[in-house]
Amino acid sequence: MTVSTDQQTVPSYAGAQAPAADQATGLLIIGASQSGVQLAISLRALGFDDHITLLGDEDHRPYQRPALSKEYLQGKVGSESLIFRTNEYWIDHNITLIKNERIDDIQRDQQHPGAGIAYGRSGATYPYRRLALTVGASPRRLEVAGGNLPGVVYLRNADDAIELKALVPEAKDVVVVGGGFIGLEAASSLHELGKNVTVLEHGPKLIGRAVGEQTSQYFLNQHRHRGLDIRLEAQIDEILADDNGDVKAVRLTNGEEVAAQIVLIGIGVVPNTQLADILGLEINNGIVVNAHALASDGNTIVAGDVANMPNPVPGSPTNERIRMESVNNAIEHAKVAAYSLMGRSEEYAGIPWFWSNQADIKLQIAGLSTGFDQTVVRDDTNRGKFSVLYYRDGQIIAADCANAPLDFMAVKQALGKGKNIDPEAAAEVSTMLKTLIA
Amino acid sequence: MSTVHFTDYEGNTTSLDANEGDSVMETAVRNGLEGIVAECGGSLSCATCHVFLDEADADKVPPMSEMEDEMLYGTTEDREDNSRLSCQLKLGADTEVHVTTPETQV
Known about the structure:
The structure holds 2 protein chains of 2 kinds. The two termini of chain A are 45 Å apart. Chain A is built from 9 helices and 26 strands. The longest helix of chain A is centred in the C-terminal third of the chain and has 15 residues, at 327-341. In chain A, helix 1 runs parallel beside helix 7 (327-341). In chain A, strands 1, 2, 3, 4, 5, 6, 7 and 19 form an 8-stranded mixed sheet that branches. In chain A, 21% of the residues lie in helices and 29% in strands. Chain B has a single domain (2-100), classed as Ubiquitin-like (UB roll) (Roll), CATH 3.10.20.30. Chain B has 2 helices and 5 strands. Chain B is globular and about 35 Å long. Chains A and B meet through helix 7, strand 22 and helix 8 of A and helix 1 and helix 2 of B.
């Protein structure tokens, strides 16, 4: 649910035949996202035999997003290779795809708990027996003068990527606002395409929300070395237009103007809670769910980026809640949601992991480093490998690994088995972490 | 048109048509074949598209990179001499390969 438009959409259908207008679908999944797709697939694998409707607001078949800021932007992969499943798959599995439709209102069926009718912007109605929201998040908007000029773009969905890609050939200078994963991935991709790229980060360090100080410093050094112009604690005053009304520069509060024919904003996302609000569900940094992906009404299923859930990491503080933005979470949470719909009460427990490919650096993160009190740095510069291990009370809880998949795999394995890796021994870079799992 | 023959750990074989340039992983996932997870969508980050490649087909696909080699040490089912990550097995025109999928990927 990321495209905001006042135009009337025209939904198109694919996959299995939709139920007749007066018949309800067994499960209406709003959000044809990574999580929505996984939910439908997992339900079929578990034997859910009712009709499923998977509804999305984009005019594309369900696709994978990670490559949009990397391989797709660089033209290394085409749009067809981002598609999740063939059309035959949806037909064979009795799943109707509805594209290019936005749900503006939902009414519950007072007689049948869990059932209701969703109202599409096209005028179509979608009666359902059960409802799942996998509606994700939308890019946080940069509220600044000139923020709506042509050439100021965001990067969340395929249409965003198509728009950005179309601007690339004519542009010489790019300003990326935000030094997080999306910003740095796109900045690296555009730099490799020959653009002059400046990254403006308003905070004191890169990737501040996701990694610790040492990893952040490593990425700053690496990106500067490769030729990105990175400005920390950069505050934007205004985005300036040329005589044609197109973006030409970003002016900072210190008066400096940075030339740009493209300004890409990547300053985080906001969970899409509008429908949850209509349904009266509890909302608190996302839609609040229990360990079985059920919202506060006990009926509506919610999974993925939009869900605020009990922290699924084994050993995490009780009652701690978390909202995670990752492919791994979208998949694993959808699986829990599928069990829940089947009446099975598997709880979500797992080791979260993340990845980000920036230029020739592959960052892999295992676990969550929140609350660490000790770090061990493994800096194997000669071989281009760099890892930071995070500990709490002597127990390993996470690792950031740059071009160090062996370290990543070892830590992920240790966490999954509830084991530890001795911090003193781990400090010796020539020692394989796998041999230290105990 | 190329073809990939997938044999699961119980010995059941599924044969799927593939396009030139597609990987073995993409061919499996798009058709909903169980036995290959591919969480990261082919960016060589997750090691959940592990397959055992028929030795006779080894020369029909690109050789293993150092990164793939390292990732293979993290597969759930232990690697063997013919282990590959199927996202790296790009198919040429009119190629026919045989792979076996492990019992589990995660």
